[in-house]
What does this fold into?
Amino acid sequence: MRITVLAGGVGGSRFVRGVREECARRWPAQGAEDGIATSAEVTVIVNTGDDLWLAGVRLMPDFDSLLYSLAGVNDTERGWGRAGETERVAAELREWGVGWPWFTLGDLDLGTHLARTAWLREGATPSQVGARLQTRWPLGVRLIPATDTEVDTYVEVADADVPGGEREMHFQEWWTRYRASLPAVAFRQRNIEAARPAPGVVETIVGADLVLVAPSNPVVSIGTIVSVPGIHEAILETHAPVVGVSPIIGGKVVRGMADACLPAIGVDTTAEAVGRHYGARSVGGLLDGWLVDETDAAAVAPLEASGLPAASVPLWMRDLDTSATLAGAAIDFAAAVRARGDA
It folds into this structure.
């Protein structure tokens, strides 16, 4: 079984852990003592739009969140960074006036950024660096950056205090410093038109038995991935069913601030609206199926009527078991969608 997941952020990390766990339960690797070992091949195409240069080092927040989560070294209380983190270097950087004082780099996390930056300066690509980072821990999953091109996301925001009433800032400044309080007018990924999928991305999508779209931010995570020229085309080409999971439950975001992003692209903060935004693959969209929460069951019929198969299942990922159950529901729904198409 070859499963490809499009993901980014904390919600994506939780979902991918659930996919790995469910695969280990359904298709355990013979003779393996590791509880996460599976004969299934799980590959994650990771959002790179949140990436940035800061204090002279390259940060890849979504990639690192997935790396730490799958390795079991993430800070589960904060939801980001490493467990047991210290911040002595960040305090020293603030004294020198380097970096953003409101964007703290933990010491352990900074070690990852320094290693990445050293390898990049030696000539390695982001995907080659990602492959090296994954050798440290047994992940049971392969992570690939969506692209090796720097496609950092910038946000045009409404700000009455500046001439013209609008200004642009890096997504991380809008997200972390302002907590998305400045109304977003538009999101732009720099160099996106010139970007190309990282090695293995297209092949992994086209050759998959199942493609899953994680409950990640539809605008800046999934939106960035599928905006890389060649990735949407690969999704249209694959013979695998493509099933997405809603990041919206009962009209509210589960994690993050997608509700501050969706208005900028004219999409309501509802499971139905996000499903329609992604669209059915039969008419050039992304999906063959869309999972919504039980509280959004009323959205199933109109989505089905629009040509997008949908189902309602529990979406809350409270722990590893509920995350695995959700992944199992997505796998089963994909099989049902495929059977419906073959009928």
User: Anything to note?
Assistant: The first helix runs from residue 9 to 26. The longest strand covers residues 2-7. The two ends are 22 Å apart (CA to CA). Residues 49 and 224 are 6 Å apart (CA to CA).
